[in-house]
Design brief:
It is a single chain. The chain is α+β, with helices and mostly antiparallel strands and 435 residues long. The protein contains 15 helices and 14 strands. Strands 1, 2, 3, 4, 5, 10, 11, 12, 13 and 14 form a 10-stranded mixed sheet that branches. A two-stranded antiparallel sheet has the order 6-7. The protein is globular.
Length: 435
């Protein structure tokens, strides 16, 4: 990237993209594993391309917790898609922003001249997160397998306790920060307290997210979704976490999930545990001309930022501010915003932080407030509170949907941003030509 304004050194174009429906986890592994979701997201996309899959220079996908039989998930997907033995592929992990990181890596590869065509995106089947043995059980099994006689194994029997069979839930471990010892919901409570965000404000935001998504479904405004079919032939063709009957009265009945009994963050105003994948084709200017490719948008610049893990939800503010500054833009210059809804409180806190002069001065090093993101330009089709947050996918999903939205509205400029577990934030600026 150029050092003066952090734009990609050469044009990077988003040609096209698909995503699967986001399917809510329902207490057991869902019908699709990681690689299956990636295949579904990319297959029909590649069929629309005028070039063969083996003409990709790279395949890059983000994922946080692929299955044990899906090591280097991107390579598994690339091979199953027919990209051939000679197309390299790799998987990236930046927690909630893994999908956006895959796009940024692809863009940097194209901008440097190393690649012309890259398939990139995100994949996460959160319902398939493994259950693990407790370390005491692992050690007991290690001794059992190392025993060289029946006598040695008999000596181990009294050391076994049924309590050792209690599973370790990998998903809960992954959603807890090991440095500050807080889970993501607890960090949302902290930033809600910091900015005085009320339970009613969170619940109202959540209701609106569901109603916006339902309206977008009814109006056919989510044409990036491709249907998927399970082994029994059942079709899944919409984000099934949406609750069109959501209301303040219903959400008010839910109890706090992370700070009992006095907290404000509930399952109803949090994102859902979900499975889903998104795939995008990125291309250089020469590849667009060579293959006469359509162009949805241009990826202009990406900004990464970091802050204390205890307030990780404010990450978008820390990434958006320098992104706008580097491009000499103001909030009013951005037509539409997609900020991933990890929690209703988190998005509300980001909006509050950007318009708070003291926060911008003390935490972002600015002379004044960045400004206020207008409600009518933010997540206008709902977000992760309604459709779910498959962690490795969301960063790619919001960029793809933002590009689609700019097309629908004949708008020019958009910013996609999200918070990142561990105390980081990412933001990507995209633009399209307006007739």
């Amino acid at each position: 990237m150029a050092a003066n304004n952090k734009k990609y050194a050469k044009p990077v174009y988003l040609v096209d993209g698909n995503r699967t429906p986001f399917l809510r986890a329902r207490g057991r592994p869902g019908p699709f594993k990681h690689a299956d979701l990636g295949i579904y997201a990319a297959r029909s996309l590649l069929l629309r391309m005028p070039f063969e899959p083996n003409e990709f220079d790279e395949v890059i996908f983000g994922s946080t917790m692929p299955g044990p039989d899906e090591a280097n998930l991107a390579r598994v997907v690339a091979l199953r898609l027919g990209c051939g033995d000679r197309v390299p592929a790799y998987t990236v992990q930046r927690n909630c922003a893994s999908g956006m990181q895959a796009l940024d890596n692809a863009a940097m590869s194209i901008a440097s001249g190393r690649s012309d065509l890259v398939l990139a995106g995100g994949i996460e089947a959160m319902s398939h997160a493994p259950l693990l043995f407790h370390p005491s059980m692992v050690n007991w099994l290690a001794d059992w397998w190392a025993a060289k006689s029946i006598g040695q194994r008999l000596q181990l029997v009294p050391k076994f306790s049924p309590r050792m069979l209690a599973p370790v839930i990998a998903l809960l471990k992954g959603l807890t920060d090991p440095v500050v010892g807080l889970n993501m919901g607890q960090t949302a409570e902290l930033i809600a307290s910091r900015f005085g965000i009320t339970r009613e404000q969170m619940d109202q935001f959540a209701v609106e997210s569901h109603l916006k998504l339902h309206q977008a479904q009814e109006n056919g405004e989510l044409d990036e979704i491709v249907p998927v079919y399970d082994a029994r032939g059942k079709i899944y063709d919409f984000d099934d976490g949406v609750r069109p009957d959501s209301s303040l009265e219903k959400l008010a009945k839910l109890r706090p999930a992370f700070d009992k009994p006095y907290g404000l963050v509930t399952p109803g105003n949090s994102s859902q545990i979900t499975d889903g994948a998104a795939a995008l084709v990125l291309a250089s200017e020469s590849a667009v001309k060579k293959h006469d490719l359509p162009v949805m948008a241009r990826l202009v610049s990406t900004e990464w930022a970091a802050l204390t893990p205890a307030e990780m939800g404010l990450g978008p503010a820390h990434a958006i501010a320098p992104l706008l500054k580097s491009q000499r833009l103001k909030i009013d210059d951005i037509d539409y915003w997609e900020i991933n809804e990890a929690f209703a409180a988190q998005v509300l806190a980001v909006v509050a932080a950007l318009k708070d002069k003291e926060y911008c001065k003390q935490q972002l090093g600015l002379r004044s407030a960045v400004g206020e993101i207008p409600d009518e330009r933010l997540n206008i089709h709902g977000g992760a509170v309604a459709l779910g947050h498959p962690v490795g996918t969301s960063g790619a999903r919001i960029v793809l949907h933002l590009a689609k939205l700019l097309e629908q509205k004949n708008a020019k400029t958009g910013v996609a941003s999200l918070c990142i577990g561990g105390g980081q934030g990412g933001a990507m600026l995209i633009e399209r030509s307006v007739a």
